[in-house]
Structures are given as structure tokens and as C-alpha cells.
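Table 4 source record.
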Amino acid sequence: MGTNAEIKLTSDASGFFKAPLLEPGTYRVTFSAPGFSTYHADNVIVQVGQVSSLLPRLTVGASSSSVEVIEQTPVLNLESPDFSATLSTSALQSIPLTIAAGPAWP
């Protein structure tokens, strides 16, 4: 708190961490872990030759997500076969037609 210095440390599998060259003084220690709320310990006193013990209580963090689905009804023209939105008249007229000769159907 006095120097405003910031040191980032990672704890071992047991949750212990060391800051060997930390100057004596009063500090604010912040704990964070994925999926948990951040925990702050204020007024942590560090003295020469002594271990400073902290017992942080991490609580499960608030998880929020949202999905927005917007449904739009497709516009269907049931009155007439109108292809004007996708094909022009000249495109329709230039479509090749194949007429096959075959047996006459009764």
C-alpha cells in the first residue's frame, strides 16, 4: 500500500506462494482464480523473518450469459409466381430450354 508496487504470483498446488524480496510494510493482497470472485485482503503486515499467513475465502463467481434469438417469418408470396426479387426478366428469358423428343404418351 505504501509503495503501490504490484507483484503477480502464482500459488503452488497447495495454495502457498512466496514473495522473497518483498520489503517490510503493510500491503493489500488480491487473490483471483477462474470461475471465482476476486478476494482482497487489506492491511497485510509483512515483517522481516516472519511468515505472513492469509486465509482467503474465494466464492464461486457470478456467471452470466445471454443468448438472443430473433425469429423472422419468411415472406411468402402465395398469390403469384413472382421471381423479380431474385431473377430479372432478361435472365428468365435467357434460360435455355431443352425439348426432348420421345414416345408419345397416351
